[in-house]
Design brief:
Largest sheet: 8 strands, mixed
Structural class: alpha/beta
Number of strands: 14
Strand order of the largest sheet: 1-5-4-3-6-7-14-13
Bound molecules: N,N,N-trimethyl-histidine
Order of helices and strands: EHEHHEHEHEEHEHHEEEEEHEE
Strand content: 25-35%
């Protein structure tokens, strides 16, 4: 079946940006690689598996909050908007909002091209009344909308606590870019994971089935394939820890032996126990996050929580 209510805009990052980021990251001390490169096709599939793990509470908790409050959210935001979702590659959570919000356009933006295309096509068939403009783009680099969108109040939807991947300073900058994107009168509906017990957090990022470990290690598979590197997977192990001081989960790939790795003609040495920092996932209290968003030019409109206060869904308007 072919849907006609969909357009695809390809703004995919070049192989050079990936290579530059990896070379720069591995040259740093300690080494690090941006988490956005987790999401090749297999990485996106592994992440979908993570969201269904018993230990990984964020997805199901956020989904429950959205479902329980979909009507309330629609009442606050109103209908007929232009709904933009940076990182919305699987077009999954937006289902919960579509019937209530009845936006005129939905713009999912994602770095993972095939994943985005498939999900957007399925959505287009399921919601024939909805115009979809899928944009394959690295929204952490280019925060711009595809050309030729209809007029309307802009609503940014940023679920999943993806904001947690940014250091707080970068998060403010990113939120400021979103404020610019939605403009005056616009909204931000964002999912924010909350601070909680260390054991719950660490289990969520080091599950007993080992899916998160595979997800982390897949970053090296992605680099080997796309950039012709020679990471030996057996020489790396997954580590996740909660730094209570900084309020963040850190994921690392730890070198299990002394080794060298070649990437595009450059050689990198790793001692046994040395690690590549692959992700931060910051946790906030609801109030801490409101303060952060205020620095970016937003005003808190409403906060929805689950009964156990594991996760928050927060609505903001742009300060005028
Ligand atoms: C997609 C960034 C929200 O930080 O929880 C899940 C990614 N990494 N398990 C998160 C992730 C390991 C996830 N975000």
């Amino acid at each position: 079946m072919n849907a006609h209510n969909i357009q695809f805009h390809d703004l995919h990052p070049t192989r050079n940006e990936f290579l530059d980021d990896v070379l720069a990251g591995l040259s740093r001390q300690p080494a690090s690689i941006p988490p956005k490169y987790f999401y090749d096709e297999r990485g996106s599939k592994l992440f979908d598996l993570i969201t269904r793990l018993p230990e990984y509470y964020p997805t199901r908790t956020e989904t429950a909050i959205l479902k329980a409050n979909a009507q309330d959210i629609a009442t606050h935001v109103g209908t007929g908007s232009l709904l933009v979702e940076p990182g919305g590659g699987s077009c999954e959570k937006v289902h919960i909002l579509l019937e209530g919000l009845r936006p005129c356009v939905y713009v999912p933006m994602d770095i993972s091209r095939d994943h985005l295309r498939l999900a957007a096509e399925e959505l287009a068939i399921e919601y024939p009344w909805l115009e979809i403009h899928a944009a394959c783009t690295d929204f952490t680099r280019h925060m711009s909308l595809p050309a030729a969108l209809p007029e309307g109040k802009h609503v940014a939807f940023f679920p999943g606590s993806s904001i947690g991947n940014f250091d707080p300073g970068d998060a403010v900058e990113f939120l400021r870019a979103i404020a610019g994107l939605v403009g005056r009168g616009g909204y931000l509906l964002i999912g924010v994971d909350l601070k909680k017990d260390k054991a719950i957090l660490e289990a969520a990022y080091d599950d007993s089935a080992g899916v998160t470990a595979r997800f982390n290690l897949n970053l090296l598979v992605h680099i080997n394939r796309e950039l012709g590197a020679d990471f030996v997977l057996d020489n790396w192990s997954h580590k996740a820890l909660y730094d209570e001081q900084r309020g963040r989960i850190e994921m690392h790939l730890v070198s299990t032996t002394e080794q060298t790795v070649n990437v595009a003609g450059q050689t990198f040495r790793f001692a046994a126990g040395e690690s590549i920092h692959t992700e931060n996932s910051y946790k906030y209290s609801a109030d801490e996050f409101i303060q952060l968003a205020e620095q970016a030019g937003f005003i808190s409109d409403k906060v929805w929580l689950d009964a156990n206060h594991l996760f928050s869904v927060q609505l903001f308007t742009v300060k005028s």
